[in-house]
Amino acid sequence: MKVKKFYFLNKDKQWQGPYWFPRILLFALNGTIEPATYVWNDKLATDIGSHPENSIYARLKASEYRSLPMWVFGYNLKILITNATKRMKTTFQKKDDWETIAAKPIEISSILEEASKVYLVPSITAIHDFAAPGEYAIKLIYIDTEQTVKLSEYPIALSSDNEPGIKFEITMVEPPEVGGVQHKESYGLHRSLGIFGKNENIAVVKNSVFDFSTRFPYKPQILKGRFRQASLVSANDYKNRYNRLVLKIADDKITSPQSILDFTGMQLYDHEKFNVHGSLMGLSFKTGGSYTEVIIAGIHYHFYTVTGDILIIDGRGREDLEDFKLKAEIIKIAFAVISGKYYGGTCNYVTSEDTDFRQIDGLWYEMQKESILSERQLINLPIFRRAFEGKDDENTEKQKAFDGPVDPTIFSGLCEALYNDETLLHAANLVISAMGNNDPLQQGALYSVALETLTATLGEAKSAELKPITNKPISRAFVAELKAVLATYEGRIPAESLDILRKNIEGINRPTNRDKLVKTFEIYGIMLSNEDKETIDKRNDYLHGRNPLDMEHIFELTQISLRLHTLIVALLLKSIGYSGHIVNLDIHLYLTNEEKMVEMIKEGQETAAGLINQIEQAKEERDEAKFNAAKAELGRHIENNKIGNLIRII
Fold first, then answer.
1. Torsion over CA of 350, 289, 317 and 417, rounded to 10 degrees?
2. Where does this protein have coiled-coil stretches (predicted)?
3. 282 backbone dihedrals φ, ψ, rounded to 5°
4. pTM exceeds 0.90 for this model
5. CATH says 130-232 is which class?
6. Per DSSP, which regions of 174-228 are E strands?
7. pLDDT tens per residue, range 263-304
8. Where are the domains of the chain?
9. Architecture of the domain delimited by 6-93
């Protein structure tokens, strides 16, 4: 019988072992292993390697380790016995033939043979062990009550839990003499900080401390709080490395990149769980995972998710971490614009000297803005396909030509545009802020500013086409004739008034703001309906602090903001060469509101019934003109059915 091999992570962050369980128990009794110490064994889970450094999730704090006796850490005996019984039942329960077959994943060799190998285990284990318990000291620079600058060193304990940020506790046996003891600034915690250990040092940028608390006067005084950012001190200073972003997503309806973007290639991961995918049949398949290649400023990036809730962006070229962070953020923003979901929160950046990330030489932990999760997915293949399901008319066949995911080169073009033009990036961020706001009035205001920003930038690129008179010689002649007419009024009009009129004549070939907005869409190939133009006109109400509707019309206000969202993103996508479908989000809103849907259907049926009655009456009266007019009106009514306008091809 094979005996379990145990390891534990000591205070120098080194795995000690292997040991048999009695030795682990002895370490627990003599204090070498404390409740917060990580303990690992090779049977803790079925999907791990032969050493804890190859394990991703299978590590527990000793206080959570159910195999240790109750009296060591005070665990409830009943719970321990119950869990042990369940484990024994699972171990000795014999599986039937179907369970045996289903338990073994089916390998798809045609996919696996072409898949590239990707190493994720070193990155994820480095992230998990970053804030593991260890012996650290922190140097604090503060000003005492005598206004003297002091530098003192204190022990600090780091730990991580399910809350954002890295938790810390600083123990002061002799509290310093400072004023305002309830404030982190009193101890210099608002400054850049250095944390020193035997085998590694950690840097914290200024103003990273939050959730701070302490009690005074108590000895020892304990300073508690969390760090928003922390990073391993690296000899390369995060310059010219291969970089990777690992982000755990908190979304129960995750939108993966490959559900919208076409994939570039397949990958096989070094952790078997990431390669195996279940099915509705109960069988599992080993296919690895897919990725989409994104190119920004000549550097390639792989964009993908694993296990459905870990988003990863791999840099395939060397660059400074600061540059990578910006481009990774732009990839997330670009994806949010078309998916309706911005994935943020705790970002873990790992760096390596090697392109395959087998050895990790840097880790940067940073809390960024939280995720924004909406239903505003503008490119949605399932909705697109359902809209034309069962139809076979000629127009539908043309639309089916756009039935496919977004080309990676188009998505790269969107990322490149946001990277190169700060105003476009600003507009995209406004869209994300709007979709994360619950107030439709505030949404409309944010979308209106985004629309003005976007059309001003894109219109400027084609300003000549926006002018009422696009022919330059004609334009110059027209202005010259108007100036000549104005000159005949000299002496009859005050000089200041003549200057004002002269300036107006010089700018007479400029479009109005409203015309500039509308024509910008047309220049980029987006034909606007009357409803589109009416919505664009309402943006002026938002910009001037007026409500386009009163607050009782929440549904209608939301429709305005959704139509603005649709138009803004459509123009942004069209400007970088996208041709395909988008969902009219304001029309899709009917599908999610039962009351409004019933109201719309009822109204449509009543209108159709009235027109049919007119047709029947015209037939009885043999009035051909009346018959044709009612028939044409019925056709327009059917064609203008709101749900029929759910999909827009741009």
1. -100
2. 601-635
3. 95, -10
4. no
5. mainly beta
6. 193-197, 201-204, 209-213, 221-227
7. 999 999 999 889 887 765 567 778 889 999 999 999 999 999
8. 6-93, 130-232, 421-467+511-591, 472-506, 594-649
9. 2-Layer Sandwich (3.30)
